[in-house]
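Example (one chain per record):
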Amino acid sequence: MIVTDESCTWLSELQNGTIFSPKWLASIGFHHSTSNGIHDLERSLLKLQSIKYCWASEDVVIICFTSGSTGKPKGVAISHTSLIMQSLAKIAVVNYTEDDVYFHTVPLCHIGGISSCLAILMVGGCHVLIPKFDVKMAVEALEESHVTSFITVPAILASLLAMIRHNEPRKSYSSVKKILNGGGSLSAELVEDAIRYFHTAKLLSAYGMTETCSSLTFLTLYDPVVYNLNQHSQKIKGTISNSLHPIGGICVGKPAPHVEILIEQEESSRVGRIMTRGPHVMIRYWGQIDTLEIDSGAEWFDTGDSGHIDAHGNLWLVGRQNCRIKSGGENVYPEEVELVLGQHPGISSVVVIGLQHTHLGEMVVACVRIRENWKWVDVDAELQSNVEWNLSSHVLKEHCRRKGLTGFKIPKTYLIWREPFPLTSTGKLKRDEIKAAAMLHLRPLFSHL
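Predicted structure:
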């Protein structure tokens, strides 16, 4: 299909068949010229059919669907203004230029992929695309196309680094200058490996969501201009240690230039709902009749996340409101517990969920995948647990206590997960699926409570 308006002057070139042979032609605003050439083209090449079109209302440019990590995906109506402002923010913070060769690692149905794509289009950079993400094909593209920038999510970055480490452990990709991570925080191990193989790249992480047209905040994890290769280990250790806060949560950086953020505090806690306003906020959900429900006249949008802001203006993300576990009357955010458990050398990945409990309301349960060469010891005895390369619930509970995790946040039950955790197409955990599988596994236990 070709869509043209009154400014189109090259359509007659198609008559010679030198470009391509489209099936449909849609004209917006004006009728085609009455020249015989155009009419012949319409009859012989285009097989013109009646196509109905209309201008999108309310400045809507696209309906982009959420990842559906905590439920059914929702269509988000995004305006031209939101998409342009987000792209300009990425140009300013990541510093995309016309010299960039941008590699599309994430799908273009994802708001991060769309906004980054538009940012590269706006500066006149080069695009490198593959049919779908395949780690072998992606590594080849990095080298063959001399890629300078790409965006990623933790699962994709882990796959890339694992392939590079396995095939070419001594090789570095010096053409890469910018890597922007989204869709979840990076572990210290992933950051270390990313800097090792992409040592010339500025590594940033962003926090956001589809409803806010991608990134709300940005955090620089590593900048080769500031830290050289000999300093990077010390830098990362400092970043990881400083990303943990006495109040809880993980630092996700400062707001983008056009973004306003405030914390609507709950009770006496410094942790509250993360609210935002600005031109980046969605118009509404697709199919929602009324306009976006906002805070009484203030136009603040509730992100559904909890967090707090420190004295330096950095936002600290504690967790999702709808993932919050209510155990014994206390609030437990799975992301905080996962961050602590993930620091144990015997755990490769972990997901924390809340399951119904007669006395506690909800019980904190940790689903863990253990690393190769480590062994899970079923007997919850200290003597058994102290053996090197052995893991048990006792070992992990002690690890949580040493890391300063409050008692009611420490998981009561641990499930060993043999398969990779289910992920969405954008690399986010499907917590509902994990919770359903855990409930099925623990059903005999619950029947005796």
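Caption: DSSP finds twelve helices and 23 strands in the chain.
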